[in-house]
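so the lab meeting is tmrw and i was supposed to have these ready like two days ago... anyway. pasting both below. for each one the top line is the aa sequence and the line under it is the structure tokens. i havent really looked at them closely yet so no promises
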Amino acid sequence: GYDTLAHFLHTFHSHYGTAAADEDEPFGTTHPHFDLAEGRRGYVLYGELPGLKRDEVVVETDDHSYTVTVSGVLRRRVPGEVVKTAGEADEEEVHWHVGERRVGRFQRAFRFPVGAVDMDLVSASMQDGVLCAVVPK
């Protein structure tokens, strides 16, 4: 039943190195939030990945470990209004007073009960910065 789901599902967050691959990528790692729901026909995994498009998110499946892994890079995207309002030449001149949005590389892995799901039919879509991965039973 639903009460035993925690015993079967193992989620973990593994970190990449803290050095950026190039200067356009943020340093460090982040841990985006996901929800996991179960129904009669399968599981649905939802993750908030603000500012990302579907082609910027990697969703991989591992048939041997029954794992779905989601990875990518969250960047701080600065709206043009910030630079215009500050009257500065570029965004590097802007002084930030609050910086609550998390940026960095991320990798989240979700392990499902062995034999309980069909890894060949896993699908993923994304709308308005929310990733939805369906893992059928």
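ok protien two:
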Amino acid sequence: GSVVASYPYDDSPTHRPTGVYSKSADDEVFKYLAKAYASHHPVMRTGKPNCPGEEGETFPDGITNGAQWYDVEGGMQDYNYVWANCFEITLELSCCKYPPTSELPKEWENNRESLLAFIEKV
């Protein structure tokens, strides 16, 4: 896990594991939506999730192009965009895939304003 808003494309023509910016025709819209979420999240907006084992990982403005981060061939986000014209971003909300129940109220507080800002954009 991480704390970042990722946008299409997740796949790239070269299928290099990382570092390839795979721009979609709607790249500016996707960046706008990703920033709308990330800019209201107290951790995401810093661009430094500080996840264990990935302490040096950074994301400018708390967002990333999926394939630039890591290439995912055949992912749902790209499939829905290409075949259904559905604009999706992927929200990585925690370094921990399964946070303890005791941390859920904090996670809600971290994400509430982001979610409202995102819904307003939609």
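from a quick look at the 2nd one: Residues 4-120 form a domain with the Aminopeptidase fold (CATH 3.40.630.10). The chain has one domain: 4-120. will dig more after coffe
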